[in-house]
Amino acid sequence: MELDLDFVRAQFPAFAAEETRDWAFFENAGGSYVPATVSDRLQRFFVDHKVQPYGAFALSKQAGEEMDESYAAIASLINAAEDEITIGPSTTLNFYVLAQSLRHLLRVGDEIVVTNQDHEANIGCWRRLSEHGIVIREWRVGKADGELDLNDLDALITDKTRIVCATLCSNIVGTHNDMAEIVE
Predict the structure, then answer these.
(1) 178 and 142 in one domain?
(2) What is the per-residue pLDDT across 91-121, written as a single tens digit (0 to 9) for each?
(3) Phi and psi, residue 142, nearest 5°
(4) What is the sign, positive or negative, of the torsion defined by CA atoms of 156, 159, 160, 165?
(5) Which of the 8 DSSP states describes residue 149?
(6) What is the pTM of this model?
(7) Domain end call among 27, 55, 84
(8) 78 with 100, same domain?
């Protein structure tokens, strides 16, 4: 099956303009353009359902139902359970909240490994924990190929390592990491 690029591009209003018509935009956590279906759904939410969800009145119930639909759609897309999905305002803020929520579980001298191929959203929040005595170790990509070498990770992990942060697909060097191997 061949991908119909004209159809795909037509889904994104941002690429209808003369200056962006020929773009291939691969940003992710930094602020991707969204297809019309997403902006239309958000527009409808802000105009018709901008109320506290899951309340007793009809509009609030409908807002909650639509939020539930979004959790189900995302879970299906990434093969996760609905209760494993968290929706927030940005990747940067979501990671910051995660790092802060885990901070109380970490002790001075505990270590976190980050890579130099990750988006700032998945690096800065962890680096900030160094202010609390957490040691940040950096897993660096190979200069020749931009890849993360698992042998380098093995050398970074110690009995003090509590968290290893790595991205599936780097928006910096364009590599795709084998997360199963990293987790192993």
Answers:
(1) yes
(2) 889 999 999 999 999 999 999 999 999 888 8
(3) -70, 135
(4) positive
(5) P
(6) 0.76
(7) 84
(8) no
The answer to whether the beta carbons of residues 10 and 36 sit under 8 Å apart is: no
Token match 């380098």: residue?
A: 152
pLDDT of 27 reads 66
Cα 150–chain centre separation: 22
Q: What is the DSSP letter of 136?
A: E
**Dihedral angle sign, alpha carbons of residues 81, 84, 87, 93:** negative
Domain identity same for 19 and 98: no
Could you tell me which of 132, 93, 95 has the C-alpha nearest to residue 111? 132
CB 74 within 8 A of CB 62: no
pLDDT of amino acid 28:
62
pLDDT of 37 strictly over 90: yes
How many structural domains comprise the chain? 2
Contact 122, 167 (CB under 8 A): yes
Residues 155 and 170 in one domain: yes
